[in-house]
Amino acid sequence: MNTPRTRAPELPDSLQWFNTSDGPVRLADLRGKVVLLHFWTYCCVNCMHVLPELAALERRYPENLVVIGIHTPKFPNERVADNVQKAINRHYIRHPVAHDPSFSVWKQYAIKAWPSIIYIDPEGYIVGVLRGEGKGKQLDKLIQQSIANAETQKILQTSKFPTRGKPEPTLELKFPGKVHIGKDRLFISDSGHNRVLECMPNGRIVQIYGSGAPGMLDGNGNEAAFENPQGLVQADGFLYVADMDNHVIRKIDLITRDVSTVIGMGKMGKVKTFDTYDDPLKVPLNSPWGLEYDDGTLYIAMAGAHQIWMLDLGKNNIQVLAGTGVEELQNGNGQTAMFAQPSGLSMGEDIEKNLFIVDAETSSVRSIRMRDNYVGTIVGKGLFDFGDVDGKKDVALLQHPLDIAFDAKRKVLWIADSYNHKLRHIKISNGLVSSVKLSDELHEPAGISLKDDVLYIADTNAHRICSVDLNTGEMKEVEIFEVETD
């Protein structure tokens, strides 16, 4: 007895479309091709991991496969169409994307979680749903089978689906992710250009690290290659870089300009134990996003694994400091606590030393008490508690913050409250949250770094770096420029 098949329901007319040249996409017009509906939200690191898997399949089957992104937002900020367009460009998405803030397609296809992929065969029937990341090989086999079956039935369509994007303006920076101010240098993760810039504090470029092409290649200066570099921290004569999409940590020798890989295998993986590993180059990382350095130790916000890691630079061994790997907000000792996409770190000492963390997916600010490795929460409640509310810590709400800076002079934590497009600060003594009034708007700021009385901000979606004088409140753009030579 044959099992009845389900025809994929047509996409509703209410969707807003991106990357299409001829308006809305209809599934009925795609018969004869394999169609993948990718349900995603642009904040989600697991959804980010699926994008290169889909891109590889699109390159392999350009005439037989159509991927359609169904963007179903978690956060209010992700409901704004202009912000979705920025995310599409930031992640180099070339296939059609339908924005579905009302969750109409999500409900239509009974989706349960991000990311999910609905597989539709060339006859227009649903083959199944694949949840989570790491499905590239499975999808590849299914696509090969579907193409072979469609050829046998003489229904295979072989034509490339036309798309048309809306590119970003050509500027010196492209989606800068993080910024770090050292003793006499300003370092910038020019993430969209896959490079790291070493600048004078006034913005003049001293050195460029990375060719600009995405890749993983050690070498000198711009002979090296990065892919979506993020967190930066200087330790003595070296700059450490969280090379996020390569799932490695890189080290730049600021004297020789040599770039080398110091942690990671160049492929994504997970470590579930709290063992100490003596060869960091054989340990798989998972989207390292934020970095901090203190007293011979490099700390890593491992966003994809929902953990905090530490590298002893003297002994050259690495281990998980805190986090079970389960995506959740839970306090406790390091081996029982839980995080959700930690993205920024800052070490600070008031009464005692703490590693402060912005935990993006729970819109929270966390801390690790260094004397006993206890994980606590300063502001935040859980995965679906977010907003834009100042006040005491039990009522205050953030929205997907991505970086943090400890200010010993003012005894506050500065927060890049990314999805509220704000700079916030939190009093360490009582957790009181306040928004900072600035003279200009921010656009999903993802990085901040403090030196003395000046806070530097990576204003990511505006492709710029800004500085704020904390004494006067003056905000200005730092012009990033190269000196022309003959």
Tell me what you see in this structure.
This protein has about 475 residues and is mostly beta strands. The chain folds into two domains: about 15-155, Glutaredoxin, CATH 3.40.30; about 180-480, Neuraminidase. It contains four helices and 32 strands. It has helices at about 45-60, 80-90, 105-110, 135-155, and strands at about 15-20, 35-40, 65-70, 95-100, 115-120, 125-130, 180, 185-190, 195-200, 205-210, 220, 230-235, 240-245, 250-255, 260-265, 290-295, 295-300, 305-310, 315-320, 330-335, 340-350, 355-360, 365-370, 375-380, 405, 410-415, 420-425, 435, 445-450, 455-460, 465-470, 475-480. Strands 1-4-3-2-5-6 form a six-stranded mixed β-sheet. It is globular, with a radius of gyration of 23 Å. The model has no long low-confidence stretch (mean pLDDT about 95).
Radius of gyration from the alpha-carbon trace, in angstroms:
23 Å
| Relative strand content | 35-45%
Structural class: mainly beta
Oligomerization state: single chain
Question: Major β-sheet, in short?
Answer: 6 strands, mixed
Instruction: Report the average pLDDT across residues.
Output: 96
Low-confidence stretches: none
User: Under the CATH scheme, which class of the largest domain?
Assistant: Mainly Beta
> Any idea what the CATH superfamily of the largest domain is called?
TolB, C-terminal domain
CATH fold-level assignment of the largest domain = Neuraminidase
In which order are the strands of the major sheet placed?
A: 1-4-3-2-5-6
- The 3D shape can be described as globular
Helix content: 10-25%
Q: What is the number of E strands?
A: 32
Tally the helices: what do you get? 4
CATH architecture of the largest domain: 6 Propeller
Number of domains: 2
In whole angstroms, the N-to-C terminal distance is 78 Å
